[in-house]
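Budget justification aside, the reviewers requested a transparent look at the raw inputs and outputs of the sequence design task funded under Objective 1. We therefore reproduce one unedited record. The lines immediately below are the structure tokens for a 503-residue chain.
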């Protein structure tokens, strides 16, 4: 056995080729037919458990060929297909096929991007990817950063970096309990839920957070932001950072980045932009003005698995002065210049973030950036936005639909039956009930997948197009589906109300 070890997990050359080709064939067919499949079958957990079976841990092995073909069947038939042209829920993109191939390649070589010595070329590819992402969004390519699992992790990484840089005293030695005065953080009331996790899990507490209300344009009200900072200063608290939205998750509004940046300069605060959804749109010349001020951000959270269409997972933290990452995450920052020579320094990514061992998620982002180039992304992102505006316009022109908001590639709208009474309060309550039920109906129906938003207490259907497969025909059909299902549901609710009124 010594020189010829046989293990049950190895898949040797010819076999790998055979099974691999079969898998690629199956995936090709899946991608080719994705638009003809239901977006989802809406199966319940109990139904799915039945399909999966309840057998215990297998004692013995099963041939890989059989397992992969069964896994294909399970996944293709019982998944929610976010690669479907009519998927526009939440902010989850269709995955670029090159990303699937890249993940296969990355896993096959399996470099560990915790340390340069374990991932020589892969580390350089990640560095280049980060530079390209910075160039893409129009900030200096001298921003440094790290790829992480997604937007939440990208924001957490920036949050911890900012806190380390701006905390009073030496937070690394004294901890937060030793930090005095009390630190304060500012975000808008529309900030994504990551901020709740950050302030609770990283020990700041929710009382350290100021949620600044939105103004009439649905942007963070920067007048109130400044008053709030002044008020905290008057109580001898220590404001440390402001979080701005580079496209808020619900309706896509971009905050006044320039205004917030200028307040941050005045009060010496860390300026963070959560650009997980919207910042890739800064690549479009016609939207450049919308993102003015982004180039001043101390840190930016990006999410390649959203508008760069990377398969899950890929997020990215960019930091204007990358030394801050080392200060926050390395336990011996004073040595960081000693690795390699000064002219040819070595970057060990474990010193840039929370993870130690790290996968090669950079590959899928790096390859997609080259497959389509800046111009390819400008076309796709531009088309997503145009399709979203078309949805808004078509909803606005339809007598039974109300178009509510449109920003970047997010449109909100609602179904409004033509035979509603005029009692305003009752009408609004009914419309919220109707549209919530309608969303559930649509999500289970499998023809289209939308999510919801609450805009000034109005329950809306929300379509977010980060989907290079969506076409104008899909938009037209989605309008028809919403109206058809809306009518059905309205009649059903009316009938039920009629019955209970007469009972
Ligand atoms: C999606 C999103 C997040 C969270 O990103 P994940 O990739 O889901 O972790 C945070 N902020 C904004 C603005 C987002 O759009």
């Amino acid at each position: 056995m010594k020189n010829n070890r046989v293990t049950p997990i190895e898949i040797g050359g010819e076999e790998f080729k055979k099974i691999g080709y079969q898998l690629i064939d199956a995936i090709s067919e899946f991608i080719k037919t994705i638009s003809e499949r239901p977006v989802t079958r809406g199966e319940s957990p109990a139904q799915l458990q039945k399909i999966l079976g309840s057998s215990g841990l297998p004692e013995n092995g099963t041939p890989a060929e059989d397992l992969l073909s069964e896994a294909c069947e399970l996944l293709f038939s019982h998944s929610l297909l976010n690669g479907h042209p009519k998927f526009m829920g939440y902010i989850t993109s269709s995955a670029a096929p090159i990303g699937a191939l890249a993940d296969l390649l990355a896993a096959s070589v399996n470099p560990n991007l915790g340390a340069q010595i374990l991932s020589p070329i892969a580390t350089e590819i990640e560095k280049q990817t980060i530079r390209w992402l910075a160039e893409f969004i129009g900030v200096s390519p001298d921003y440094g950063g790290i790829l992480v699992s997604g937007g939440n992790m990208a924001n957490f990484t920036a949050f911890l970096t900012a806190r380390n840089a701006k905390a009073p005293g030496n937070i690394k030695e004294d901890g937060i309990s030793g930090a005095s005065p009390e630190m304060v953080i500012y975000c808008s009331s529309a900030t994504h839920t990551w901020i709740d996790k950050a302030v609770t899990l990283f020990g700041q507490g929710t009382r350290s957070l100021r949620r600044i209300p939105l103004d009439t344009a649905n942007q963070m009200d920067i007048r109130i932001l400044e008053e709030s900072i002044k008020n905290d200063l008057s109580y001898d608290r220590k404001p440390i950072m402001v979080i701005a939205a580079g496209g808020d998750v619900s309706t896509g509004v971009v905050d006044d980045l320039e205004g917030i940046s200028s307040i941050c300069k005045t009060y010496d605060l860390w300026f963070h932009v959560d650009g997980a959804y919207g910042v890739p749109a800064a690549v479009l010349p016609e939207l450049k003005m919308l993102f003015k001020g982004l180039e001043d951000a101390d840190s930016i959270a990006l999410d390649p698995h959203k508008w760069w269409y990377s398969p899950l997972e890929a997020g990215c933290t960019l930091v204007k002065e990358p030394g801050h990452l080392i200060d926050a995450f390395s336990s011996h920052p004073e040595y960081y210049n000693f690795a390699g020579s000064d002219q040819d320094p070595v970057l060990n990514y474990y010193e840039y973030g929370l993870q130690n061992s790290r996968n090669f998620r950079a590959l899928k982002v790096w390859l997609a950036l080259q497959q389509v180039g800046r111009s390819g992304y400008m076309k796709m992102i531009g088309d997503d936005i145009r399709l979203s505006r078309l949805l808004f316009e078509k909803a606005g022109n339809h007598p039974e639909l109300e178009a509510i908001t449109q920003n970047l590639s997010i449109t909100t709208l609602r179904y409004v039956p033509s035979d509603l009474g005029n009692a305003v309060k009752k009408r609004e309550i009914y419309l919220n009930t109707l549209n919530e039920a309608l969303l559930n109906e649509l999500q289970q129906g499998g023809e289209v997948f939308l999510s919801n938003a609450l805009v000034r207490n109005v329950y809306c259907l929300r379509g977010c197009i980060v989907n290079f497969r969506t076409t104008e025909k899909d938009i037209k059909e989605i309008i028809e589906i919403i109206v058809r299902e809306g009518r059905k549901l309205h009649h059903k609710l009316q009938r039920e109300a009629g019955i209970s009124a007469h009972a």
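The chain has a mean pLDDT of 95. Residues 358 and 368 are 20 Å apart (CA to CA). Computational costs for records of this kind are itemized in the attached budget.
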